[in-house]
User: What shape does this take?
Amino acid sequence: MVKFNNITEAIDWLQNQHKFNGKKDLNLFKQAFIDLNIDLSNIKKIHVGGTNGKGSTASYINNVLVNNGKKVGLFTSPYLVTFNERIRINSSYITNDDLLSLINYFYNYNEYLYNKYRYKLSFFEILTLLSLKYFYDMKCDVIIMEIGIGGNLDSTNIINYDVTLITNIGFDHMKVLGNTLEEIALEKIKALKNNGHLITTMDEKFEPLIKSYISSISATYHLIDSKLIKEVDNNRFNYKDLNFNLLMLGDYQRKNAVLAYEGIKYLFDFEDENIIKYINQTIWQGRFEEIYPNIYIDGAHNVDAVSSLFLNVEKLFKNKKVTVVYSALKDKDINAMLNIIRRYNYEIILTSFPDFRFESLENFIGKNISYKPNSLELIKNLKNNISKDEVIIITGSLHFIGYIKQNIKEID
Assistant: This one.
């Protein structure tokens, strides 16, 4: 039965499903996947988790595999400009026709599940199953699944993966994952399953936690030694006598690139030059991305990400005037993030964007912090009056960055 005749109403329905099921295990959701009869046994499967850097790491891997002749399905979230960004094959977004067909399929499938199990799929569950079915139907060689939140109970954790990659551990989504770094780390490590293999750039202080969990599930792990990553200059570094020269800015990208490299080496026998070449050429929108000369956007949406971003801003632009345009949703620790930016004595301009979860940031006005509600008008004015010795950093919620990207023509 065709429920939706156009992509807009189909996506509206999907996005209006409850986001999470509040489940304590994945048993019913796994059964929903089993009922689809999707056989992924002949497809290499890569799971990417962590607090920050998941999207960048997944994009490095994707770019290498595609350019080495693999048909690659990539699942990421959230999107910045168009919903279809979440699901890609060989870097091309899923078409509206394919997405419409699949949403109709899962509308009916959701009704079937409710009748059979009294279980309704959430938004993220539908999106996960939809992606897996699409990658299977399109006969992908490899699928890369980015974890949404945590790992243990994340919707992507219903299948076994050939390798699990975890970037780092920081404070984010504490209501779901826990209030200590150890609790958050364990939730993420639990994405690993029996006989699986973990590769991670987590801080070595988490190694006892990794070992404890690994021993309980007969898995293996490789904790990457950060001391082997040696800076040459801003974008260039060495790792195991290999020379990297990234397009993506930020010294945190070194660990993401090395994690991607090790993940690829674990699964494939590509020559190093055919890995590093395409890691170096990778870009990922919304991550220290220059949208106009000297104007950058970055979706740094938690304390760790903001801290890393502005350490790099200070390093890269120490001789320039820096102006920060910031906005975020009310569920983020806005005060803590602003306190980090304040340390650098940059001018901070708070602004707004249309989202039902947004609340005015006027309460945060203070020394060197002003508020201008119209973000597009603000950025356009800054762009038109920027000097050659000035840099503008636009950051905060990924939803804010996405709004700017979606409305870039109004800034031109």
Remarks:
- The mean pLDDT is 93.
